[in-house]
Amino acid sequence: MTSSSVFAGLSPQAPDALLSLIGAYRRDPRADKIDLGVGVFRDDLGATPVMRAVKAAEQVLVNVQPSKAYLGPEGDIGYLDLLKPIIFGADVSHEVFGVQTPGGTGALRLGCELLKAAKPDARVFIGAPTWPNHTQILDQLRLETVTFRHYDQRALRLDFDALMTALETARAGDIVLLHGCCHNPSGADYDLAQWAAIAETVARKGLTPLIDLAYQGLGLGLEPDAVGMRLVLAAADDALLAYSCDKNFGLYRERVGALYALSRDADTLDLAASNIRALARTNWSMPPDHGAAIVRVILESEALTTQWKGELEAMRTRVTDLRLRLAKAVPSLAPLVSQHGLFALLPLAPAQVARLREDHAIYMAGSGRINLAGLTVTNLDKFARAYEACLQGEPA
Ligand code: LMR
Asked: At what angle do helices 380-391 and 350-360 cross, to 10 degrees?
């Protein structure tokens, strides 16, 4: 590289550790390899099929979509409106504005850019561990973070007291980033009483919640996965919610998300909306259409909605069942049974994670996070044996 190159002043960036697992797993020639890496649902054959409701909606679009002309910065308004009752319930206490975004990441990025513009000195309270992209986005935007322990990885237990202690130090206008359900990476969610306690603190201290809801329907079910976080939204004057349909509609690579801003005051919401539109314009101008159009077509049809909910419920049941099976095979993992969603964070050191990959072709995030949906009736016993041998430090 010549020193006059415009790129010469850049520092090299490490590849994203989680996404690198996709290629590493693909390149591994071992026939009995197990992919517990990136968070996609898999069936018992290890496949991630397109949902039948999605295929049917795609057919509808092929037959009737009249145009591919631009829809505007908000994207598909029908999509945004039809999701609202699923996310917020029938009675919303706030004015709500939504924009369609490329995946949940697009929504988080937009939301954090808005917060940075609105309140550059706000601190973002965030549990550790969290989804790595949360901290990557916040760090890139130079938003100050205050970290508290979300999860005790050794004891496989939520550390709720750490959250409550941290929030007592928050100032009015500070942000608290919360996973709406199916915590990524731990699977450890708040129960209703804990959500109510967070809501009380948010209201008392004047905090702004930023809720990341990327796995609705994969924990306890569509409605129970949302009731807790709704208490927190209802308690706040203003809030942001980043949503993803990538998992619960199985639309991953279509990148289907939404950012919703909530405010008690219509003028305040208009101000936020105008800024969100302007930020979206300079990021992606207008969002890609196809995935959101699929979700709209499904939610516009009673029959397709029923089909989608049935398929989602079958996915949820499979993951819940895998938790039970794994806990039976590895008794020390019993706490996983009361946790939710695709992920569990195992008490493994990075060297043990590497050993499982090298010696057993078992792929998981370096943190010890597994995607339970990568387990099958046929590979679960192999995984359980390798895991226990690894914990005991025996040669496997
Ligand atoms: C995951 O956590 O595995 C998924 O959300 C995929 C991603 O983009 O990180």
From this structure: 130
Atom of ligand 1 nearest to the CA of 132: 9
For atom 4 of ligand 1, which residue has the closest CA? 39
- Quote the pTM value: 0.96
Average pLDDT over the chain reads 96
39 touches ligand 1 (CB under 6 Å)? yes
Mutate to test the pocket of ligand 1, among 16, 18, 19, 137 (most ligand atoms within 8 A of CB): 18
In short, whether 131's Cβ falls inside 6 Å of ligand 1 is yes
**AA letter at 236:** A
Dist CA 10 CA 394 (whole Å): 44
Catalytic machinery residues: 131, 212, 214, 247
**Cα–Cα distance measured from residue 372 to residue 50, given in angstroms and rounded to the nearest whole number:** 19
Separation of 41 CA from ligand 1 center, angstroms? 11
Take atom 1 of ligand 1 and give the residue whose Cα is closest: 39
User: Cβ distance 35 to 25 under 8 Å?
Assistant: yes
The CA distance from 198 to 229, in Å, is: 9
Do 227 and 181 touch, CB atoms closer than 8 A? no
Calpha distance 81→84 (Å, rounded): 5
38 ligand 1 Cβ < 6 A? yes
Band the pLDDT of 286: cuts 50, 70, 90.
Answer: very high
Decide whether any atom of ligand 1 lies within 6 Å of the 18 Cβ. yes
């007291």: which residue's tokens? 161
Answer yes or no: are the C-beta atoms of 244 and 104 closer than 8 Å. Answer: yes
- Cβ pair 57, 294 in contact under 8 A: yes
Distance 39 CA to ligand 1 centre (A): 5
The C-alpha atoms of residue 256 and residue 116 are separated, in whole angstroms, by 24
Task: Identify each DSSP E strand in 129-272 by its residue range.
Answer: 144-149, 151-152, 157-158, 175-179, 208-213, 238-244, 256-263
Q: In Å, what is the CA distance from 123 to each residue of 82, 234, 355? A: 33, 21, 38
In residues, how long is the chain? 396
Measured in degrees and rounded to the nearest 5, phi and psi for residue 212 equal -105, 110
Summarize pLDDT for 168-186 with one digit per residue, the tens: 999 999 999 999 999 999 9
